[in-house]
What we know:
The protein has helices spanning 16-21, 24-27, 40-44, 47-53, 56-70, 88-92, 96-107, 111-115, 128-146, 149-157, 170-180, 191-196, 213-219, 221-227, 232-242, 247-254, 259-280. By secondary structure, it is mostly helical. Helix 16 packs across helix 17 (259-280).
Amino acid sequence: MSAIYKFPYDSPVRYLPLVYMLPHDLLIRCPILRKLPRSMGKLNASPEWAEVIQSDTFLNEVMDAVASLAFPHFGFGGWKEHYTGWCPIWRLSYSLPLWAKGVERVRGWGVQSLFRLPPDFEIPFFDPEDVKAVMGQVVRQTIEEQGWGPMLETVREMSCDEDFEPWDTNVRKDFLRKWYHTRSKRVQTVSLEACMEDEDSGIHSLPDPAGDFTGQVEGEDFCQRFKATLSEKDMAILELRVEGYGYKEIADKLGYKNHSGVIKRMEAIKKRFIQYENETGR
Length: 282
């Protein structure tokens, strides 16, 4: 029995089927993976490759490459590279054990299938369209099995600036248009309105300002009375958002472990705003 068969199951060896499934145009961008022998005989005969497969560098290349295949099937715009590691969908795309399990379930292409190949069999490159179809099916099934659907919808509704790379891309422009409401003729956006805007909130009943929205909304007695109902920490979060700080910056300033806690508090503040507006008849 050759060395590769002696690796523990939880080693990166279990991801070899995913590596051999990578389309050629993606594989050539991976310095280590593109040099991997495409037969089990050659792979088993190389102690050097056995060591490489166990390395973090090998695992990182596999994770990045397979995540690029999985990400488009979550239904979010752009490529994985348009998002930062803060984005929940970016992180989900790196669920390598789930993708390995899913590909074996959908296509029967797993570690045991790989090791049953004749030692001198050269594994051909997979058809890119076939790979895309398989990954699409795997991701859809995984979303259903893991119950990720409601979470994905929440992420769509609660995207934040830290989720996106600061590049001039369409996916970022779409986010900014939505966030700052530049598609609306009635709203000039910023400040408290930018934090609270919600179709069901009734905030549109506030007077449409002819001048600077920030100054007028901040000065309104109604908004000041609402702020007085907030806790000290919620008030601090709201004021920092009004001043233009991002969620991560606010988290750092106020001692949160990460920016998701700040997002949750902002969502709670928005719900409180809607409730207060209804209670006061605004």
